[in-house]
Specification:
The protein is built from 13 helices and eight strands. By secondary structure, the protein is an alpha/beta fold. The chain binds D-malate (MLT).
Length: 323
């Protein structure tokens, strides 16, 4: 592990990443490696002016097949992959990165968010994001991992459990659900997608914060409210729109719950208004080896609102798992 860096922010100070992939700047050749300058090339005669060339068809935004996402990796040991919620990015897991010393913590940015903002398609299908993760495991030569997802990260984790069950060594589902949206919820997602594309992200924190953070956090932790606001405003409208469309179309993962055979931890904030605690209770009871942790004084973003309780639960759950 590299040495602490005085300029890093608090969680980063405690634990520096081992590797950051997919985030490199394009390398420029050093001055002494550049091609030597030769005599000037003869100039081609000017083309006669004719009718304008037809424009080439627009390039697709990103390849439609699976693509390993940009990722930050910390430490060594049993690999634990942390999947972010909507509309945030990998930074939301910093309080857990610090606590999970002794594990190989792999934190990707999902298509359209954070360092993967360029990878958004028209629709970010959850199944494709799950396949992106499988590609990431291939690239990193990880046969199996513990997968931990919060909300949209949980939709992806459940899609992964449906599509790549042999690569799961454990599962943590935080404030998420296996079922699909109601018609009203779907319509609201599509409306939000249109609105962010038309207006930008300005309205989003106010629209979402009351449901992302519990009442207790909103009253007592203005700095966390501010941090989440800034992370939301830092995203890209097209990534947000694509994720909303993808979540609206996501496949039903209810059927996979009874087939999950790995140790599973379900965590819910007791003040979660987006995915009520009863839904987590029901989901946990449908999974054979699931343990349920209900966290008081926390809403939807339980890992940020009550990091110590979530970290204790994670460490306790992970202790007997060796990969
Ligand atoms: C999330 O936290 O990932 C989202 O709120 C999930 C959703 O919109 O269903």
């Amino acid at each position: 592990m590299s040495q602490p860096n005085d300029e890093a922010s608090a969680p980063e100070r405690a634990r520096q990443p081992e590797a950051q992939e997919g985030k490199e700047e394009e390398a420029q050749p050093a001055a002494d490696q550049r091609e030597p300058e030769g005599p000037p090339e003869p100039q081609a005669p000017p083309e006669p002016e004719g009718p304008p060339e037809p424009e080439a068809p627009a390039e697709p935004q990103a390849p439609a097949g699976p693509q390993a996402p940009p990722v930050t990796v910390y430490g060594d040991g049993t690999p634990v992959v942390l999947l972010p919620a909507f509309p945030l990015d990998s930074r939301m897991w910093l309080p857990q990165v610090e606590a999970l010393a002794g594990y190989q913590v792999v934190v990707p940015d999902l298509r359209g968010f954070g360092a993967a903002r360029e990878q958004a398609l028209e629709v970010t299908h959850m199944d494709l994001v799950a396949d992106d993760l499988a590609s990431l495991l291939d690239v990193r030569r990880l046969e199996r991992v513990v997968l931990c997802g919060l909300s949209m990260g949980g939709y992806v984790a459940l899609a992964f459990a449906r599509r790549h069950p042999e690569r799961l060594g454990g599962l943590v589902l935080c404030d998420t659900r296996a079922g699909v949206d109601t018609e009203d919820a779907r319509a609201a997602r599509l409306a939000m997608a249109e609105r962010v594309l038309a207006e930008g992200l300005g309205f989003l924190p106010e629209a979402m914060l009351p449901r992302l953070l519990g009442e207790t956090t909103r009253q007592r932790r203005p700095e966390l409210v501010q941090q989440v606001t800034e992370t939301i405003l830092d995203q890209d409208p097209s990534g947000i729109a694509a994720a909303q469309r993808g979540m609206a179309e996501r496949a039903d993962s209810t059927g996979v719950l009874e087939r999950i055979s790995v140790p599973t931890l379900v965590i819910t904030g007791m003040e979660d208004e987006l995915i009520p605690p009863e839904d987590s209770l029901q989901m946990a009871s449908a999974i054979r080896h699931a343990r349920l942790i209900q966290v008081p004084d926390a809403g939807h973003l339980v890992n940020l609102e009550q990091p110590d309780r979530v970290n204790d639960a994670l460490l306790d759950f992970l202790a007997p798992i060796w990969i």
